[in-house]
Amino acid sequence: MSTFSPHGHLGSRPIRPARRLGLGLIALLLVLVGGTVGYVAFGYGVLDAVFQAVITVSTVGFGEVHRFGAGQKIFTIVLILTGVGAAAYSFTVLVETLLEGYLADEFGRRRMERQVRKARDHVVLCGWGRVGRAIAHSLRNSQVEVVVVDSSAERAGTVDGPSLCGDATSEDVLRAAGIDRAAALITALNGDADNLYVTLTARSMRPDLFIVARTASESAIAKLIQAGANRVVNPQDLGGARMAALATQPHVAEFLDVVMHDGSLEFRLEQVAVPPESPLAGQTLRSAQVHARTGVLVLALRHPGQAFRTNPPPEAHIGGGDVLVVIGNASQIDALRALALGEEQPGAGIPQ
Q1: pTM higher than 0.70, yes or no?
Q2: Residues ≥6 apart with Cβ < 8 Å to 350
Q3: pLDDT recorded at residue 2
Q4: Domain carrying residue 27
Q5: 197 inside domain
């Protein structure tokens, strides 16, 4: 979301437009008070002095209440110059504040709405704290589009990409974030109760949506799963497990990090879904010639609702709805996806 810098001098603390407007109005008021006091000193009554000061500063041209002498003329000239200057400054700041604030908010909102409307197969990320920022960073490294929802306008304004300021437990807010077109939703709010409510709301809106929920306690895991979360993650547990892996098997842990998130290696570790109508459905790994036709290595095979079958033998059957966990380069994995969809290109992905 775009942000706009407040006005101020370089190297000094910026002066907000509202404060500048306040200073201008105070200056104008002081000029009117000074003009009233001056005309009273010249012998005017209080009401006449106020009237004379107002028409002088506003330059409406009614003329003087009483005939001016030389001193009164000089005082009036000074009053006109200072009053018109203060009034012009206040009016300029007012117009500038209204235009800049309204136009900036309006253009920013419309641009954000267009970005969200264009999003397809994106991830709706609820919560823009430290965990949310880390999630978005990882997703964008994987070329996955993210739409962020946060209840704080200040935090939402720091998002580099599509974002909405609102309550993620609201159906209207989730709908505005494009939940009907999203591939997944991640709720990474600070409280388990908030994540539970977001999960319930999202599941009621999209029974087929893949939902990942954050938790801070073991006792909340069962409740979040019951509410509709497909996966529940405790960031502290994951961080501890990774630190332990780095201490005991640093090369394995670093290799997995690079393959999964870094992108500096040619090879990737990814999952490939096999649709029910896929030509691979009903075949074995041997008969489908997955490696020979694409070059990928199948590390695991998972049937719906079952545990992973790691290092599956060539005789392992592939069923519709299965997920293959494979390793290979980008062209090889793309070739496997095309094969699973029945769109195989001759020679695609086959290592030379």
Answers
A1: no
A2: 292, 293, 294, 295, 335
A3: 35
A4: 17-115
A5: yes
